Sequence to fold (688 residues):
Amino acid sequence: MKASFITCADANANAGLVTGFLRLEMPRAAAEKSRPPVHLSIIIDASGSMGGRSIELVRQAAGSLLQWLTRRDYISIVTFSNVARLVVPHVQLTDKPSLLERIKNITADGGTNLSGGLLEGLNDIALNYRQNELHYVILLTDGQANVGVTDPAQLAGITAAFLEKGIHTTTFGFGNGFNEDLLTKLAGSGGGRFAYIDGHEAIQTAFQNEFSALNNVVIQNLAVNFAAAPGVRLTEVFGGYPGDRTETTFNLQLGDGMAEDTRHLLFNLTPEKGAGKLPAVLGSLTCRGLDATASFDPVVCDIKVKKPAKNQPAWKTAEVKQELWLQQCLQVKQRALALADAKDFAAAGALLLEHARRLDAISHSRPELVAEQQNLFAMADKIKAGAYDAGFRKQTVFQASQAMQNQGQYCRNASLEVLSAKFVPGKDEQPAEFAALIKRKLQEANFPYDSAGRVMTALSELVANALKHGCAGRPDGKVEASVTIAETYAQINVCDDGPGFNPEATLKKLRGRGASFEPGSRGLLLAAGICSRLVFSDGGRQVEAVVMKDSGNVKAFAGKAPEGVRLIGKIAVLAISEGIDLHNLKNITERIDRLLDNSYVNLVIDCVDITYVDSAGLSFFIVAMKRVARKGGRLALANLNSYLHNVIQIVALQDVLPIFNTVDEALASMGSAKTFSVDIPDDQNRPN
Fold:
């Protein structure tokens, strides 16, 4: 385990505070080493509210749990309604069929004695505790505690107490009737995970996450202790880790560390009243755990917490500010939910927007920060629009808990493939070849259709802009580009050796222009609209763009597919199944010219499979519309995919271009009924 620590005096608005940032990096898993046996108690809510679909989901969940375990593992099953019952005492998992049958026969009736069930399962694991093995309970419920101990703080105290004994608690909430705040608190205090189960697919995802973690434990029972020096006070601790805290100390339980995982911990310190300035040494940190890759030997890291240096490198301050903003997102979401619970939707939305916009003042190049900022914007929009219900609230709490569980994910993704190229003016084949390579890599990385389209568009725009304006006609001009393709994002970096420009002023001018029939000058506006992050530096000569890999269109990013033209009476329907950019514009334009030359002056472009489009491609639509009009015909765009629809809205062309939902609607607008269709001859439909 590797520990690093930074102190920073400039991360907060309060000048008297010093922020400490602890980063713990877990080692790699030992090669070909099997995990220790797991001792697991499945605690099943069998109260009356579990009737119907809920109990079926829970039975499926419990059965799936057994499938993830092996004959080396141990299991017990507890049910609870008015009272708790140990249905299957602690037993080695050698007879799965009989256990599955016991689960199948569980029925729902009575109240919800959650505390009784929780204690029954935890005590069963405690009685069968074995040194250097893994011990967990998983609580499956759809309701709220209404029998026995019901106070959330007391229930969280139970899981925290058993965590100190090495027993972790994970909670799964089913449907929309459970108390997500309680289940999150139980899992957080118990060193486990919380998952929101809203369907069959969510069960498999939750168990995959849970057991992939179990199979990769490298540091067990990770804990961090801090003791402040005389004259120093502890004002705040971030991260939501369970443990004890006073004005001068904290003792936190961080759970188990997974292979190549990172854990982040931030806290604020201030001088004691009347103590004056902070001392040179602010306190001491001790990080402890057991090495699960060897013989469970103790692992200890001691860190002396020192006052920040006067001339501290800027990157250290930036890193602390970034992490502090990310950690504060959890607090902001919790406050926003409380406001929304009180029906103050306007205040909740304003709070989220305020924190989201703070990121714009922080220098960073971390895509996960952009993703979290976008989440805050989306959450604010939904709350202000009145879309606040039980399902939305539970999903928000779940996503917030996942963000804390997955901290450091970007660091694990950062070493993925980086592709780079150099270009010079006049060599159009260079960017075309690089774009083809990136397109293939995005397809291999299973980027969704919409996300991949945005990557290709941004790359085309930024490279074209650098070649045209950065090199400014100089034959010796140089442009360099790189694309990093990671699991959750793509990052594009482009630089040129030109005179530079003012991107802020240029964007302001373009946005003020609005919709226009004039082609050109939309590239920068388009790039700014489709990227999650677009940052220029060095006087406009360098740019970094980030596109997040989101769900978008679930269709994978396809390669080039066969194209065809259908003739519907005297109307031609042209399907384009590739990107439209500066490099293939000539071929597509020639296809339209061949149709016009054959008197097919009414043209419908089927856009559903257009993989990406840059500003030259958008200009193509306008030029084609004018060209068709000069021939006395009409042009229509139909069947736009969500990516293309979004791009057209970004550059305000939705009121300029004739757009229809379907091809049939476009045909109807031209006065045609769909009577017949034929393929045009090969000599008029040559492949590009």
User: Anything to note?
Assistant: The longest strand covers residues 217-228. The domain at 416-548 is CATH 3.30.565.10 (Heat Shock Protein 90). Confidence is low (pLDDT under 50) at residues 408-415, 551-563, 673-688.
